[in-house]
Design brief:
The chain is of the alpha+beta class. The chain is about 50% helix and about 10% strand. A hairpin with a 2-residue loop joins strand 22 and strand 23. The protein is globular, with a radius of gyration of 35 Å.
C-alpha cells in the first residue's frame, strides 16, 4: 500500500525493488559478528519473501539481488547510476542508514506508520544536514564512532550519538578526529579513538553503503510506462488467491476467464428450458435462484462440465415454471435408489447457502404419513457447500463460492462483487445481463463440482454424520422458522419506548443534580471530566482522549457512588431504546411480523446467531429489559409455549468429565450451586447463605469458561488469593473436572483443535502462538469449546426433533424462535397440552448423558409470560 501510494504521487518512469540474499556478505567476512545480535528472521516472514517476489514479478516490476551484498548496496548503486544518467531518484526504505545516499537529486523517503496513518519523511542532502547536523557522507562517520546495536557495529567505546555528532560536525570525518585526538573534547573520546582506531575504521567500512556493486542493470527493464500497467491479470489472480481483497479494487482488468465460461448459456424461453430440465432429470445438479428486490428474476443450474445454464424470467419464461421444474427434479432425485459404496446417495441437489434458496421452494406439500415420508426423502437430497466448508474450517466466517473454488478446487473465479461492484442484481439484469449470467453460472458450476470434494473431506474429518444428521436438517428448520416469523404488537412497542424515554429523562435529571451541572452523558470525555476531575472519584485512568469510562471502570465505582449506578442504568436504558424500542419497529412487515435471519456458519463453536434483527440478544438480566418480551405475541387462537434447558453446560461438563460427585448431585436433583457452595465452603447444605450460593454459581459457570483467579476476583469483587482458594477447593471437590480440563487442553495442544461429542471440530490456532496472552486465551477456548459446542449441537438436535414431530403429527403449532438454550413454539390453543408434552419429550431425549437433561416449560399470551 505504501508503494502504491508513492507511485501514484510520483508517477515514476522506472521502478526496481532490491532484496537481500540469504547468504553471508562481504561485511560478515570482514567482521564475523556483523548483525550477530539480531534475532533470526521468523519463519512466517521467510515464507512471505517468495510471495513478495511472485507478486512483483506478476506486476512486471524489476527485481535485483546479488550474493555477497545487501539490498542497501544495490539501492545505492542503482541510485547513483540513475543520478549520473541525469535522473531524479527516490529511494524508499524504513532504514535510516540510507540517509547517507541523499544528494540534491537523490531523495530518501522513510515511511513511518502512526495511528493516524502512514506518513513519509523526505530527505535530500540539505534535509539530512538540517535534521542531523551533518552531511549525508558525514552521517557514515557518526555511525562509525557511535556504533549501531541493531547491526552490531562496534563503533568506539564511550562515544554516544551526541558526542559522535558533535565531533563529526566539527572535524567532518573520523580521520580528522583521529588526527586531532589530543585536542578532542571530551579528552576520553580522543583517548578512545586512538586506542580503538582499527575498530573505528572497520566500523566505518561496515556502515558505508557500497555504490559500485558489479551488477548488470538495464534501465529499460525497469521501465514503468504507467502505473495501471502494474495491475495485470496475473497479479489480479494472485491477489485473489492471497485474499488481498482491498487491493482488488485497484484492478480494472476484466474478471479472469476460465475455459468453463465458454459453456455458460442464457435461456429465455420455456421451450429451451424444457429441453435443459429434461436432460438434467435424475442427475446430480447445483442450483441458484436469482432473487430481485420484489420478484424471482431467474435461476442458474449446473449438472456437468458443459451443462451450465442461467434461466432468465420474462415474457417467455415465468418464475412459477422454474419453481415447478425444480420440484420435479427434486422428486425424481428423491425416488432414485442408487447409492455409492458408502451408502450415500449418488444424486443430490447442491446449493451454496441452501436456506436462502428454499424461499422459492415448498417441500411440505402433503398431509399424513405419506407426506412426511416424501418430505424426508426430498430433504435428504440436498447438499449445502457453504455449510460443509464451514464445518471443515469454522474460523473463516464466510463461505462464498469463490473461496470454495479456491480452497477446494484450486480455481480462481470472479466473485459477485468483482462482477457487480456495489450494484444490485435488479440493476445488473437491466444494464449488463451477461454479468449476471457469469456470476450465477460460476456459482452453480463451483457448487456442483465442489460437492463430492467437500463430501470426501467431511468423511475424512469424521464429520459426515454431523453434517447429514444435524446441520443439513437444521437448514430446513431454520428456513421454516424464518418464513413463520414472530408477531409484534407495534402499539405496545411504541408504549414500551415511551416508558423508556420517561425513565431515561428522569435518570438524566438525577445525574445532572448529582453532578451539579448538565453535560453530555454519552460523551466519555465530558463524563470522565465530571467524574474524575470535578467529583474527584478514585481510580481514574487517564488516556490520550480523556478518562476511561468503560463499564469495567464504572462497575467498580458503582457500589460506593450513586451517580455511577445511575449512569450505568442510563446506558442500559438508552441501549434498550435504540436497539429494541426504536430498532425493532423498522423490521415489522405488513402482516405485523418480524422475520429474523438465522446464521449457521458464523460462530466457531456451532452456536446459532441471528440478524436483522438480532433476537438472540433480547435482554433477560434486568426487569426493564425483560419487559420487551411483552410486545411479542402469538397469532389469534394461539399461545406461546417456551422451554429451556436447565444448566445444560454444567450437565455436559459432568458427563464429559465423568465426575461422580457432580453426576450424583444432578441425579439427586439437588440445587447444584448450593451443593457446590456446601462442598467448597465446608458448610452444611441447609446453612449455605445466599452470598455463598451466588459465589458458588460464579465458580460453577466460571470453570466452564476456563476462568482465572484474576477473572473470578473481578467478578466477585474479592482478592485474587481468595479467588484462587475458591478454584482450588472446587477442584478438590470435583477432581475429575480438573483432570478433564487439563486433558482437553493437552489434547488441543497436540492436535490443534477440540472435538465436541458429535464430532464438531473447533481449531485453536492461538495455542501455538508465541504470545503468552494469546496462548492463555487458546487454553480457555480449549476448556470451554467442547462443552459449549456440544450444548450447541444438542439444542440443534432438539430443534430438528421438535420441528419434525410437529410436522409429522400434522399439528398447526410451529417452532418460531430459538435463543441459545430456549425454544419458543407458537401453539394452537387446542394443541397446548400435546405441545408441552412433545416439547419436553423431544428436548429431554435429544441426547443421552450420564445425567438427565432437565427442561423448564411455561405458557403465556406473550413471550414475557411464557418465559
Amino acid at each position: 500500500n505504501i508503494l502504491f501510494k508513492i507511485l501514484e504521487e510520483e508517477k515514476p518512469d522506472y521502478l526496481t525493488v532490491a532484496f537481500d540474499v540469504h547468504a553471508p556478505t562481504f561485511r560478515h567476512r570482514m567482521f564475523e559478528a556483523y548483525k550477530g545480535t539480531r534475532k533470526p528472521v521468523t519463519e512466517e516472514f521467510r515464507q512471505q519473501v517468495p510471495l513478495m517476489k511472485e507478486m512483483l514479478t506478476a506486476m512486471g516490476v524489476a527485481i535485483v539481488e546479488k550474493e555477497g551484498y545487501e539490498a542497501d548496496d544495490l539501492l545505492g548503486t542503482l541510485a547513483f547510476r540513475a543520478e549520473r544518467a541525469g535522473m531524479e531518484v527516490s529511494v524508499v526504505s524504513g532504514d535510516r542508514d540510507l540517509l547517507q545516499l541523499a544528494t540534491d537529486h537523490i531523495r530518501i523517503r522513510i515511511p513511518k506508520t502512526k495511528k493516524t496513518g502512514t506518513e513519509i519523511e523526505n530527505y535530500y542532502a540539505a534535509d539530512v544536514k538540517e535534521r542531523y547536523l551533518v552531511t549525508p557522507k558525514e552521517f557514515i562517520d557518526v555511525k562509525a564512532l557511535m556504533g549501531d546495536t541493531s547491526d552490531n557495529i562496534p563503533g568506539v567505546p564511550g562515544i554516544g550519538e551526541k558526542t559522535a555528532t558533535a565531533l563529526i560536525a566539527e572535524y567532518k570525518s573520523i580521520e580528522a578526529v583521529h588526527a586531532h585526538a589530543d585536542f578532542v573534547k571530551p579528552p576520553r573520546a580522543g583517548k578512545n579513538i586512538v586506542e580503538y582506531w582499527e575498530q573505528a575504521v572497520m566500523s566505518k567500512e561496515l556502515a558505508t553503503i557500497v555504490t559500485d556493486v558489479p551488477i548488470e542493470n538495464d534501465f529499460s527493464a525497469a521501465r514503468l510506462e504507467r502505473i495501471e500497467a502494474l495491475y495485470t491479470e496475473e497479479a489480479y489472480l494472485l491477489c485473489k488467491r492471497l485474499e488481498f481483497k482491498n487491493l482488488l479494487a485497484r484492478f480494472s482488468v476484466d474478471a479472469p476467464k476460465n475455459d468453463v465460461q465458454d459453456h455458460f448459456q442464457r435461456i429465455t424461453s420455456q421451450e429451451k428450458a424444457q429441453t435443459v430440465f429434461a436432460k438434467a432429470m435424475g442427475k446430480p445438479a447445483a442450483f441458484r435462484f436469482l432473487f430481485g428486490k420484489r420478484e424471482l428474476l431467474g435461476m442458474a443450474l449446473a449438472f456437468g462440465e458443459t451443462e451450465l445454464y442461467m434461466f432468465q424470467t420474462g415474457d417467455e419464461l415465468d418464475a412459477a415454471y422454474l419453481q415447478t421444474q425444480m420440484m420435479s427434479l427434486l422428486r425424481k432425485l428423491s425416488q432414485t435408489e442408487a447409492a455409492g459404496e458408502d451408502g450415500e446417495p449418488l444424486s443430490c441437489l447442491s446449493a451454496c447457502d441452501l436456506k436462502a434458496q428454499l424461499r422459492a421452494l415448498d417441500l411440505w406439500e402433503a398431509e399424513g404419513e405419506t407426506g412426511w415420508e416424501t418430505y424426508q426423502k426430498m430433504r435428504s437430497c440436498f447438499f449445502d457447500t457453504a455449510i460443509a466448508a464451514y464445518l471443515l474450517n469454522p474460523l473463516k466466517g464466510s463461505y462464498p463460492y469463490e473461496d470454495i473454488a479456491k480452497d477446494y478446487l484450486g480455481l480462481m473465479v470472479p466473485s459477485k462483487a468483482d462482477l457487480f461492484g456495489k450494484k444490485a442484481l435488479d440493476e445488473i439484469m437491466k444494464e449488463d445481463v451477461q454479468k449476471a449470467v457469469t456470476w450465477s453460472c460460476y456459482e452453480a458450476y463451483v457448487t456442483w463440482k465442489a460437492q463430492p470434494v467437500l463430501q470426501q473431506a467431511l468423511r475424512k474429518k469424521k464429520m459426515e454424520a454431523l453434517f447429514r444428521e444435524i446441520e443439513m436438517p437444521l437448514v430446513f428448520v431454520l428456513s421454516d422458522m424464518e418464513k413463520e416469523g414472530i408477531s409484534i404488537d407495534a402499539d405496545a412497542l411504541k408504549e414500551y419506548g415511551r416508558q423508556l424515554s420517561v425513565s431515561i429523562e428522569a435518570l438524566e435529571e438525577k445525574i445532572y443534580k448529582e453532578a451539579d451541572e448538565t453535560f453530555n452523558i454519552n460523551s466519555p470525555k465530558q463524563l470522565g471530566a465530571v467524574l474524575f476531575e470535578k467529583m474527584k472519584l478514585p481510580n481514574g485512568k487517564k488516556t490520550k482522549t480523556g478518562y476511561s469510562t468503560s463499564a469495567e471502570v464504572l462497575e467498580k465505582l458503582a457500589p460506593d457512588h450513586p451517580i455511577v449506578s445511575d449512569i450505568l442504568e442510563y446506558r442500559q436504558l438508552t441501549k434498550l431504546k435504540s436497539t429494541y424500542a426504536d430498532g425493532l419497529a423498522n423490521f415489522i412487515d405488513d402482516t405485523g411480523k418480524i422475520h429474523t435471519t438465522f446464521h449457521q456458519t458464523i460462530t466457531a463453536t456451532g452456536r446459532l446467531s441471528s440478524t436483522d434483527p438480532n433476537l438472540q440478544n433480547i435482554p433477560i438480566r434486568i426487569e426493564l429489559g425483560k419487559l420487551i418480551r411483552k410486545v411479542f405475541h402469538p397469532m389469534k387462537g394461539c399461545v406461546f409455549v417456551d422451554s429451556d434447558y436447565s444448566q445444560i453446560e454444567l450437565r455436559i461438563l459432568a458427563h464429559m468429565a465423568q465426575d461422580e460427585q457432580l453426576i450424583e448431585a444432578f441425579r439427586q436433583k439437588q440445587d447444584i450451586h448450593r451443593t457446590t457452595a456446601s462442598q467448597v465452603f465446608h458448610v452444611p447444605f441447609e446453612e449455605v447463605t445466599p452470598l455463598q450460593r451466588r459465589n458458588a454459581k460464579a465458580v460453577n459457570f466460571g470453570i466452564v469458561y476456563g476462568i482465572s483467579a484474576f477473572g473470578l476476583s473481578q467478578d466477585l469483587n474479592i482478592s485474587r488469593k481468595e479467588a484462587q482458594e475458591y478454584i482450588d477447593r472446587y477442584f478438590e471437590t470435583y477432581p475429575k473436572i480438573k483432570e478433564f480440563l487439563e486433558r482437553t487442553v493437552q489434547e488441543a495442544k497436540e492436535t490443534g483443535a477440540i472435538t465436541t461429542m458429535y464430532g464438531r471440530l473447533r481449531p485453536i490456532p492461538e495455542l501455538s502462538s508465541g504470545n503468552f496472552m494469546q496462548k492463555q486465551f487458546g487454553e480457555r477456548v480449549a476448556m470451554n469449546s467442547p462443552i459449549q459446542g456440544t450444548a450447541a449441537d444438542i439444542i440443534k438436535i432438539a430443534m430438528i426433533r421438535v420441528h419434525d414431530r410437529l410436522l409429522r403429527e400434522n399439528l398447526r403449532s410451529r417452532l418460531i424462535l430459538q435463543v441459545h438454550d430456549e425454544l419458543l413454539i407458537e401453539t394452537a390453543e387446542e394443541e397446548k397440552e400435546k405441545v408441552i408434552r412433545l416439547l419436553e419429550e423431544e428436548m429431554q431425549d435429544a441426547a443421552e448423558l450420564s445425567v438427565e437433561l432437565e427442561v423448564g416449560t411455561a405458557c403465556g399470551s406473550n413471550w414475557y409470560e411464557a418465559h
